Model the fold of this input.
Amino acid sequence: DPVRVLRLARFATRFHSFSVADSTVALCHQMQASGELSYLVPERVWQEMAKALMYPQPSRFVSVLIDLGALQSIWPQLDAARHTPAFDQALRALDLAGDDAKARLDVRFALLCLALSSDAIESSCDHFRVPNQPRYWAKWATDRLMALPGLAQRQPKEILSFILSFDGLRQPERLAHVRTLAHAYFGTHQDQAPDAVDVIDRDIALIEQSIQAIQQIDPKPWVVQGLSGQEMATVMEEARLACIKDCQLET
Done:
């Protein structure tokens, strides 16, 4: 049963003392060579992966699949990236998140997907029938996470654009996901940049203050003046940018 290959990798991730017998490794390689792993149902792959990603040191799930010769059949997009620096950093970030019991599946999957291009993420999520939230954060992290470091020092328009990219004004609780993603990914930079997480914390603090300030804007006076449509959108954006600028000055 090819599903057993996935479970083998998951058990090796869950139990630290677990090791795979040489004969079992050889059998898995035979299954790969015969094409049996191509019969895996994509939804079953996602189910096993989702469980494995929630264990401490979740990168072991990927490394065991590589050792078994199975990753190239199960997730060819990720296998194609495994000799790149982005792959190594994504696995290190994933394990940092694995140390945080509060790091949700959405975040962990997004960190693993940082090894991939946007197109590879799209095709992978389609293939595995990945649910909406993990899919959303995987795409968001690839497209926007790298813009975070030093954001607090940039122009208010850039900061507002970043906030809107994760719908932070309507769903401010999403900032917690952004923080966890950033701590895990940029925490892997500590050897080269010891203050990397401190910089991120300052950026996150400015974003949080800006969101709170923007949420206090009262549009009623402009409604009374008869503004609507594009005029209302313009004055609202100006007010939001002013809030961000005030937060920058305060900090």
The chain has 15 helices and no strands. The longest helix spans residues 229-250.
